Amino acid sequence: MDDGAGRSAGSYWNVETGPPLRDVRCFAFVARHLSFSRAAADLGMSQPAMSQAIARVEQSLGLRLFDRTSREVRLSPAGKALLPYAEELLETAAALSAEALRLAAPPRAVIGLAYAPVVGTLAAKAARRLASRDPAIDVELRPSGRRAAIEALTRGEVSVAILNAPFPTGFTTGARFHVRVGHLAVPAGDPLATLSRVKPGQLGNHKILLPRNRPPGGMWARVAATLRGPHQHHLVADDIDDFAAVLDLVAAGIGLLPVPHLLATWIRRQDICFVPFDAGELRITYGLTWSPEHATPESMTLVHAVQETLWTR
Fold it and tell me: Which ranges of the chain would DSSP assign to H, the alpha helix?
């Protein structure tokens, strides 16, 4: 190594690094309290140790940081000028330590959950339950239509899906539950909106919004059976997964929509009224569905979390 390189290496190692971080923290605390004794107590130090730390900082910087009398402590002009830099240095050091801890921690497990929007409250509660456990599990929530959810399950993009019956073959289903459909969404201003209850026989002059897929025995098949003929049906999609989105069609006067009771309780729109629908026992059956091939301990933990949420709701 030539002399120039040697001098360069030596100058690197001999560079002045400034006061230690612990002493800079003492400076910031004394500046905050304007009291050596209170700053020492806050940091769990003795007052003599605090005074020695401030002396080291002042000696290292070649500046007096405080004006001290027997009655008070004040920041010197140099102390006032340097305090923002000291605070920024401490914040940067704290951020460095926090990021190092995050990088050193083992990665948290992440599992995907697809669900029909109408049961989003249940999905969110289960996600919070898993995030609060130890070790925590992060749940990637994916509101999806039925077809998209099944495709995501098949491709392994999500671990579990909350689907409505009939459930797809080739998958495992558990934790079944029912969502009651007890209201009819009607446009505000429609004569039906003034009624305390609506029966199917009162819908002769109205169209009902229905999906094309109406499996026998399902809720939509029972609704269609209560109406007089296909002229009362307005088909809007293969499946109705997002009731809230279809309400725009109701507001536009295209048709009426049977909706779950829970949706009628938390949606408020000035252009729509929810009237109790007296059409017998209407309900949609949902269940947790997962692929046995892609089952993991984390996905089974998610299934149990949803079950616990159902039991305690």
Answer: 3-13, 21-33, 36-43, 47-61, 77-104, 120-131, 146-155, 219-226, 243-251, 261-266, 297-312
pLDDT in tens, 224-273: 888 866 668 888 888 898 898 899 999 999 999 999 988 888 888 999 99
Beta strand pairing call for 233-237 and 208-211: parallel
The packing angle between helices 21-33 and 36-43, to 10°, is: 130
Four-residue CA torsion sign, 121, 127, 132, 133: positive
| Domains, the chain, ordered by start | 3-104 (1.10.10.10), 111-313 (3.40.190.290)
Report the interhelical angle of 47-61 vs 36-43 (nearest 10°): 100
∠ CA(60), CA(43), CA(23), 5° rounding? 10
Residue listed under structure tokens 């505000």 = 188
Q: Please, are residues 175 and 307 in contact by the beta-carbon 8 Å criterion?
A: yes
Given a cut of 60, whether residue 302 has pLDDT beyond it is yes
The partner residues of 210 in beta bridges, in order of sequence, read 235
